[in-house]
Amino acid sequence: MTAPVIGFIGAGNMATSLIGGMLQKNVKPANLIASDSKPEQCAALERQFQIRTSTDNAVLAAECDVLLLAVKPQVMQDVCRALPRERKPGQLIISIAAGISCVSLENWLGAGTAIVRCMPNTPSLRGQGVSGLYATPAVSEAQREQAESILNAVGISVWLDEEKLIDAVTAVSGSGPAYFFYLIEAMIDAGEKLGLPRDTAERLALFTGLGAADMAVHSDVDVAELRRRVCSPNGTTERAIETFRSQGLPKMVDDAMQACADRAAEMSRELA
Ligand SMILES: NC(=O)C1=CN([C@@H]2O[C@H](COP(=O)(O)OP(=O)(O)OC[C@H]3O[C@@H](n4cnc5c(N)ncnc54)[C@H](OP(=O)(O)O)[C@@H]3O)[C@@H](O)[C@H]2O)C=CC1
Ligand SMILES: O=C(O)[C@@H]1CCC=N1
């Protein structure tokens, strides 16, 4: 089977992460094409990845087997409505936009369009991405496999039975990298305050994050047990965890993730 030609409409942060990750997994540059409204962004991508680019989205619509929509939610309607209705036969549309429903996409792209909604995350650039996927009934089994193989090239993916769960995936893993970056930022600041040189605090915090996640992914016990194993009775970690608990960290995380999912649902209504 010949490899599909995959077109990225909108070549910003997330498209760059996906393209970079795919090229590291033996996807050929000749099979990728990206478009962006900014010619300088197209030029930057050509230099960085040696892939073809265009400032005309219609070029991608005509020749790509898979069209991956990676523009901001606020411009998605205009981008979709401007695409020609006559696109490459059998084309699969994958939208990675937060808060844009399949119903809206189908309204803008034409009834019966095969659409997969996907929520990826930026660690895809390093092949460590996580994606939630939802397919409309028009998507064939072969197209589901096509979508899965694209996202699995840059990490792991999970299929969802209900579209509304995409908002929950956004709250956990789509936006999730930012939560970890924020915690690491705070750990670096606190480490510096405790007297470490900033670059030392940064290395310690970053590699602790990497080590903890790697250990948890490969462990046969759950993360709560791994946490308990670091906490010696009446020791140092216990004091730190008690401070997190008494100052309301679990509730803060719950509130933040609820706010994230609520915003995704709000965007679906605003941008429908
Ligand atoms: N960033 C993330 O971590 C994640 C993002 N997403 C989703 O991915 C999508 C893209 O996000 P992100 O990559 O951060 O955004 P960016 O703004 O970095 O990328 C979007 C790119 O699309 C360009 N663009 C705007 N209008 C058009 C057009 N008409 N045709 C072609 N290109 C156009 C933008 O140019 P200009 O700057 O000039 O507008 C920009 O370069 C969003 O819908 C977001 O919800 C999903 C998961 C994670
Ligand atoms: O912040 C956002 O809206 C996007 C979606 C998930 C990550 N970034």
UniProtKB/TrEMBL annotation:
One of its GO terms (molecular function) is pyrroline-5-carboxylate reductase activity. Its EC number is 1.5.1.2. Residues 6-99 form the Pyrroline-5-carboxylate reductase catalytic N-terminal domain. GO terms for biological process: L-proline biosynthetic process. Gene3D superfamilies: NAD(P)-binding Rossmann-like Domain, ProC C-terminal domain-like. Keywords: Amino-acid biosynthesis, Cytoplasm, NADP, Oxidoreductase, Proline biosynthesis. InterPro entries: 6-PGluconate_DH-like_C_sf, NAD(P)-bd_dom_sf, P5C_Rdtase_cat_N, P5CR_dimer, Pyrroline-COOH_reductase. One of its GO terms (cellular component) is cytoplasm. It is found in: Cytoplasm. Catalyzes the reduction of 1-pyrroline-5-carboxylate (PCA) to L-proline. This is Pyrroline-5-carboxylate reductase. It comes from Halopseudomonas pachastrellae. The gene is proC.
